[in-house]
Amino acid sequence: MRKLVWFSLGFAAASLAGALLYGHWIILGAVVALVLAGILTALKMKYSKCAVLLLIFIGCAAGFCWFGLYDHLFVLIPRVADGQRLFVSIEASDYSYETDYGSAVEGFVVLNEQEFRVKAYLHTKEQVAPGDSVTGMFRFRLTTDGGLENPTTHRTEGIFMLAYPIGTSTIQKAEAISWRHYPAVWRRQLLTRMEKIMPGDTGAFASALLLGERSGITYEMDTAFKVSGISHIIAVSGLHVSILFGLIYTLVSKKRVLSCLVGIPVLFLFAAVTGFTASITRACIMQSLMLLAMVLNREYDGPTALAFAVLVMLSANPLTILSVSFQLSVGCMMGIFLFSEKIRQYLLRYGSKHITKQQKLANRMLHGVASSVSVSASAAVMTTPLVACYFGCVSVLGVITNLLTLWVINFIFYGIVVCLLFSLASIGLAQLLASAVEILIGFVLGTAKFISKLPLAAVYTSDPYVVAWLIGAYVLFGIFLLQKKKQPMLLLTSVVFTLLLTQVFSWFEPLQDDFRVTMLDVGQGQSILLQSDGKTFLVDCGGDDGENAADTTAEALLSQGISRLDGIILTHYDTDHVGGVVNLLCRIRTDRLILPYVESSQIPEDIIAAGQCAVEYVQEDMLYTFGSTEMTIFASDSYESDNESGICVLFQRESCGILITGDRGVAGELQLLQTRAIPKVDVLVAGHHGSAGSTSEELLAATCPQYAFISVGENNRYGHPADKIIQRLLEAGCEIFRTDIHGNIIFRR
Fold this sequence. Notes:
Blueprint: H1 3-21, H2 25-44, H3 50-81, E1 85-92, E2 97-99, E3 102-111, E4 114-122, E5 133-142, E6 161-172, H4 182-197, H5 200-211, H6 219-228, H7 238-251, H8 256-273, H9 278-296, H10 302-316, H11 324-352, H12 360-391, E7 393-395, H13 398-423, H14 427-452, E8 458-460, H15 464-482, H16 488-508, E9 515-519, E10 526-532, E11 535-542, H17 546-558, E12 564-565, E13 567-569, H18 575-578, H19 581-584, E14 589-590, E15 592-596, H20 605-611, E16 614-618, E17 622-626, E18 629-634, E19 648-653, E20 656-660, H21 666-675, E21 683-685, H22 697-703, E22 707-710, H23 723-731, E23 735-738, H24 739-742, E24 745-748
Parallel strand pairs: 4-6, 11-13, 12-14, 13-15, 15-16, 20-21, 21-22, 22-23
Antiparallel strand pairs: 1-3, 1-5, 2-3, 3-4, 5-6, 7-8, 9-10, 9-24, 10-11, 17-18, 18-19, 19-20
Helix pairs in contact: 1-3, 1-10, 2-3, 4-5, 5-14, 6-14, 7-8, 7-9, 8-9, 9-10, 9-11, 10-11, 11-12, 12-13, 13-14, 15-16
């Protein structure tokens, strides 16, 4: 019996419960777990099956006790410092990187004679290197529960404090670099050398593959990998550790003792250079156990090794349990251990019916395909629900993409290492060798891009039909596992058929509406779909995160089978209205861009270049008619680059309509009312995200809207929507819908 597996399961469950719920009840949880363990100990003599539950509850008790102790030892002081202003010196542990408001750097700070990891956000863009000190007054924020603000994902990395400067900070360059900063320095040197050897997208891919550096990965490339199901290639994980170990094992002539002596230090050095991410740490621990088992002539048990890795990582930081990387890494290995061999054997049995023993090449190919498909499919069984929850995307063709590309990743990895070694002697020679590697990288990028463009390459959980299908698919899988006579092809056929059925519903359901308006939840920004008489227009696409706005909009459209818009209308050029357009155009094409004409500022050329379509500037009112629908675009009487120069959109069909005024304030609204005949509408989009300076009483009196839509981010720093506007809308008899409360808002007729 794998005792460590069950103990670790209980320990992980307690860590998860502690991380999600927090509080003094953790002591109660430990007591309850110990009481249950005591009861099971008494029952164990009579019922042998109680042994498993006993180990789980002992693990739970240990997990609860350690979580409470860890919180007291490592989080108590940061919790006390939460919200305080302290004059401190922060020693940088990595290189700083630029942010929208300056730069950010990770480092160490000493509080109460104890050292803690911290992430500092600086006003300056001056480069900070490992070992440098940043001294000044800082306001501290706790990243775990129990603080003045909501917890952040930094807690899963062991960073329990964020530091914000008050006034100026002094940066003092390090006279000497400590040994603990060497991995960060080596990482920067490797990345710099990589940029010289392979520029552009291939270099960005190489840096991500070798070191997990994703800063050079474009939105288009990242989306292609996500949709095609091979994002794990550019996230350093167990795949990369196994490739590196394969290289080490070959170089030492497959000698066990030498493999252990060389392999373990090299693997953990690799983990240090890549930043000790959860997935790489898990893989290094398991690979080290395998090496030790080889040297000691002991049997290596994968599930036990995984349990040990989980126990070590959660002991180092119980909050790691909340890390997406950790969950995906562990889930992937669990799926492989549970299902991989069974899937492989089934595929071999199925394939052997069509291949004779004399067909050696075909047999070798069959074994290769069976191994690749079984690993990808079994990993997907456990990771798909996590990917769906965290990223809202389920790659349908991921197994196929992995089959087509994974075989070449080894050659690319080894090729990058060889190029780096040759670059020590000659950059020119390394660049020459890199040209061959770039061909292989181009194949992977091209394959991912091609598959990501295919219909049904991925489905999205923004579509409720997809959520229902996913739940149903796992119900079917559960039934399949309980059956004595298992029929894999029947399961696969059922899952595929129900998926196609959900897509029929998803694509045809919107067509049943004569008039449909969707305000998408893009945070502090705006993105509105207008659909009627077979036409689809988009008004704005931006938010506090442009990539998120593009993803949300693209997924809403693709879920309806729409890959091309009839037009994109931009009310004005503020980032919260246009910041996601360029990224969106990587995934969704459009027939025309309808843009406000502005004389005093430069029109964003990147949007026009990305659109590759007709561009229409609104210098006077424009009317589009299709079927029974009319869309009027009101030009501004001013060509200044401010909110008042934005265009307005009136979208109506018969007696149903919606008015969008962008970020116009009261002055812009009054100008619209005085110069145009604005009819009554069913829906009014509150101006400027519910700002106190928009949505005037005059506009409400003229339009008499039944509903008011407000596109606004949760807990935004602007205080939108203003209480004054909410009260004004209620007094006007409007029913209010807000994206920060209701999510995506759909109005249909």
